[in-house]
Amino acid sequence: MAKLLSCVLGPRLYKIYRERDPDRTPPGVPETPTVVTAPSSSSWDTYYQPRALEKHADSILALASVFWSISYYSSPFAAFYLYRKGYLSLSKVVPFSHYAGTLLLLLAGVACLRGLGRWTNPQYRQFITILEATHRNQSAENKRQLANYNFDFRSWPVDFHWEEPSSRKESRGGPSRRGVALLRPEPLHRGTADTFLNRVKKLPCQITSYLVAHTLGRRMLYPGSVYLLQKALMPMLLQGQARLVEECNGRRAKLLACDGNEIDTMFVDRRGTAEPQGQKLVICCEGNAGFYEVGCVSTPLEAGYSVLGWNHPGFAGSTGVPFPQNEANAMDVVVQFAIHRLGFQPQDIVIYAWSIGGFTATWAAMSYPDISAVILDASFDDLVPLALKVMPDSWRALVTRTVRQHLNLNNSEQLCRFQGPVLLIRRTKDEIITTTVPEDIMSNRGNDLLLKLLQFRYPRVMAEEGVRAVRQWLEASSQLEEASIYSRWEVEEDWCLSVLRSYQTEHGPDFPWSVGEDMSADGRRQLALFLARKHLHNFEATHCTPLPAQNFQMPWHL
């Protein structure tokens, strides 16, 4: 009877991974999943095949879940319509509640029938036995067997806790339960006295900004967190996860962040291979509708690196909602997991981000200054210009206030606090992070990210003539135009390198540098163009085109 109850309340099982060749497992990698002890028949090596009762009950419950999601998103409009029609009176609400209660009882009955179907399936019974054993005792053997199943991630046991590193327990400087530290925006009206009257005047605007950010704004910014989209993408996500586990020997793990959110991760270890780049770990930060199952992790994987992918809060197996604070909390526990559980030194970690993932990547670079490098692909400097692009002009003040208070993705400000190597990849046909049209390459916000980074690191070089030269170079939409501008100013790379190395030897590596202070305008132009070319590479593609492995290069450094 207890087993039947476990089947009723248990998670949905999607797939039982096929047997993998243990010889492909890199040596020295602990806890790499092999295969669960089970009858070796053809029915055990593909998607889990539910019995008819479980299959039909699952379909009914899935349909009910979709209807509930649609009702949730349309509830404000429905409530307004019902109010106007007079249907919210007590005499009409009571019968409706009876109908709702009856429907809930029917769905509970369907869930019990699904549990009965699971109970008659030996595959599911063995899975639920392993899952219960793992929750009781998270031994290496139990986790090894559980890793052979792909199921609803909410039931996966936690593998790593944000407080697990001993340094966090001994130090008071780590994150609290309220979250890690973020850079806060400056007040919109500096110098204004923050009196009680002013606070009262601002209250309606603040309430409006809060409502916009937590309803329309967050879902527009992170459409991947919308349940209906995830439901539509589920077959692709399951297929991508199976590829990572079965073909790349990926290891899935659940991380618990300081805010209580559970973060879904996938780790592929290449340290035991003959490829030297496998000693470096690339942590991938996905875009606003990207998932590690089908996202940018494929690029460093093809290039031979060890890879750690993770999903934003509210995406697929990760819980929570993707606000900046939650995003930074998630990134913090991912980096801690890489260092303290996977055993990578910060100097062997590279942060790679695509699009909106630049926020968490730059936060990690700012907060973990010893990491090796940062690569930002199709990213931007600040969210406000991009938000204003898609909203009506009459909403300008509301949009600016909402972004600054609740959705402040200040990538350039965070990146300027990182002292290590940086590479920016600009898409020449980007239709997302341009503020006009894709053909207008100068409206690409990646340009502003480069300029702000160079102006912070090399303020004397990036004087008026340096900025002008770099802007001319950024206007080039092809390699031929780039080379033409580069040769027009007769940039001598050997001379630029010698100047920079001489300054570094004499003054140290910490930015900002005062190099170019006593230099001619021509010398500053040469240095500005040289540095721009080293920090930004063009990729002739649209925003969502996957980056080829040959374009994934480590950033330049002296």
From TrEMBL:
GO CC, one annotated term: endomembrane system
Transmembrane segments: 60-84, 96-116
Statement: the UniProt record of this protein carries the keyword Transmembrane: yes
GO molecular function: monoacylglycerol lipase activity; phospholipase activity
Membrane topology listed for this record: Multi-pass membrane protein
Compartments, record wording: Membrane
A biological-process GO annotation: prostaglandin catabolic process
Limits of the Phosphatidylserine Lipase ABHD16 N-terminal domain: 3-152
Top-level taxon of origin: Eukaryota
Keywords: Hydrolase, Lipid metabolism, Membrane, Transmembrane, Transmembrane helix
Catalytic reactions on record: Hydrolyzes glycerol monoesters of long-chain fatty acids
Enzyme class: hydrolase
Keyword Transmembrane: yes
Function: Phosphatidylserine (PS) lipase that mediates the hydrolysis of phosphatidylserine to generate lysophosphatidylserine (LPS). LPS constitutes a class of signaling lipids that regulates immunological and neurological processes. Has no activity towards diacylglycerol, triacylglycerol or lysophosphatidylserine lipase. Also has monoacylglycerol lipase activity, with preference for 1-(9Z,12Z-octadecadienoyl)-glycerol (1-LG) and 2-glyceryl-15-deoxy-Delta(12,14)-prostaglandin J2 (15d-PGJ(2)-G).
Entry's family note: Belongs to the AB hydrolase superfamily. ABHD16 family.
Protein name as annotated: Phosphatidylserine lipase ABHD16A
Species name: Nannospalax galili (Northern Israeli blind subterranean mole rat)
